[in-house]
Amino acid sequence: MTLAAVASLAMAQAPARVIAPDSSAEKGAKDSGEARLEISGKVMLDMILDFNRVDPTWHATLRPSTIPVTCPGDPGCGKDGETIFSIRQTSLTIKGFVPTELGMLKTDLSMDLFGIGTSNAGGSGTTIRVIHAWGEIGRFGAGQHESLFMNLDAFPNVIDYWGPNGMVFLRNPQLRYTMPTAEGTRLQFSLEAPSSAVDSGKTPTFIADNLRARTKYPDLVAKYVRDADRGQFSASGIVRWVGWETTNTANNDPSGNVTGGGLNVNGWLNVAGKDRLIGHVVYGKAIASYMNDGGVDVAPNSTRRGEAVTSLGWYVYYDHHWSAKYSSSLGWSQHRQTNLDGQSNAAFKEGGYASANLLTYPAKNILAGAELLWGRLEHKDGASNTDKRIQFSAQYKF
Fold this sequence. Notes:
By secondary structure, the chain is mainly beta. The protein is built from two helices and 20 strands. Strand 18 (348-360) and strand 19 form a beta hairpin. It is globular and about 85 Å long.
């Protein structure tokens, strides 16, 4: 075999190159050698033994608001007991780092398979859902990311996808600015996409069926974070304009708006080793759209006028590491709303959530474990129901 033939064979057997031409550094940019594209993600299987039932659209996770209370009628009513296999927590992340004359351009495109509306009897139905679509350069960011009104760093070490219901959790399109601060602190501001959860309550059917949210102004959010050796403290505030209108009347009346807002204080305390005690409390009016589960922003009062609904949410969790290969997380959470007279008897009043787990890390990038879960939903009239389940999960990161 000739030398040319050997070279040709070697080239034919060489692996294909991965090329990202737009991720190269800008000519003359500082740190041009730092240009790169990072791909990561995880493959995850959840095996759930549900002793009761929830709305089948959401049965791959435990959200108290999806527990059926009025049967027959509510989604999820049926004989107790269900087995669910789900791969919806499987995810993919692509991050880009491109040096430019203005600094490092950072991008993040992340997605998982937890889109709704694809449930089936086996729980394996999936739809791609965007988690992040984010770009950041210097102190400015734009796209979809976790709202500044929440703090993902304070999320406990649980394997149930949705987690504690009494916390603020929303990934939201936004414009963000981070102010220059001392080391260990962050002060950030954002304009975020508005949304409104409107409860038509006891209004006449011809109005209720044509009532919709109106989002005229963006939400304004500010966040302060302080990191220290003993843990982290975070405080966020939000101001909102929440509106509504009727679609089948000449002047779109009944219509109106209220001002909403709230304060979210959370963080954790390092206890011993890697153990930490995590706490979170949020209070406000018309903030249910930002809560992890349950409630509405606006509802009718006794005179059928729209009024902001008050929310109180909290959770306390303890993350414990038994060793380098075993950990547990135990905690309790609650979201409670102060109902208005114009709401129906079936309006969300309170959701409760508790969980405890044992997780193992047998090798790099591998997690397996079991989690006990309990949830409770209570309506305005006091009617309630609970759900209990065990979740077994296997996760493989890449």
